[in-house]
What we know:
Number of strands: 0
Radius of gyration: 19 Å
Largest sheet: none
Mean pLDDT: 90
Helix content: 55-70%
Number of helices: 8
Shape: globular
Low-confidence stretches: none
Structural class: mainly alpha
Strand content: under 5%
Order of helices and strands: HHHHHHHH
Amino acid sequence: MDPLVELAVAAAAWFLLHAAVAGTSLRARLIARFGELGYRVAFSLYSIALLVILIRAYGAAPCAPLWTPPRALRSLPIAVMPLAFVLLAGAFLTPNPGAVGAERALERADVARGVMRITRHPFLWGVALWAGVHLIVNGTLAAVLFFGSMLLTALVGTRDIDRKRSRQYPEAWARYTAVTSNVPFAAVLSRRNRIVLREMLAPIVAGLLLTALLLLFHARLFRVSPLP
């Protein structure tokens, strides 16, 4: 199969798997039939398989430019990726009631802390920022398919989690959303929350370390220098 066609099919399948299965009532029907564990194992295996296909097809796809990014934007990943990595690290280092199996974090009085003060979906927004800046600076059809599918899946995922959690835990989730935001920094800018740096020390250190490793090994791993 032509790599570009394979990439398009895999990108569509990736989005549909997460938006049409994980984010709809079909998920509940599959869990009822196969059990929670069976569903999670199958979903994870399908996701891994599609991700492998996506990466392979993207690497083999021809460079078909759709636009040429302005020179001023070529440094955008360097500016954005530290925040993306802080969010990604914080999603695992901070109790996150939006994560699978971590719903009991809603019982904590200080649940809206650390990176959750920035966004209640730190992992998905970390992925969205990574995908968005790479889509912009690459400007190819392959990048639109690869990074675009990741970006769209992450953004739709934030909406789906909000909808699912509000249905499962209406009162607790309403209290949580009253002091947090989906869009990064929206709750802080509206003065419903504030940044507390001491709560974010571990995510910041981890995020900066990941950024340094990326700068060091990006060209070797992906054959493209992250520096403009």
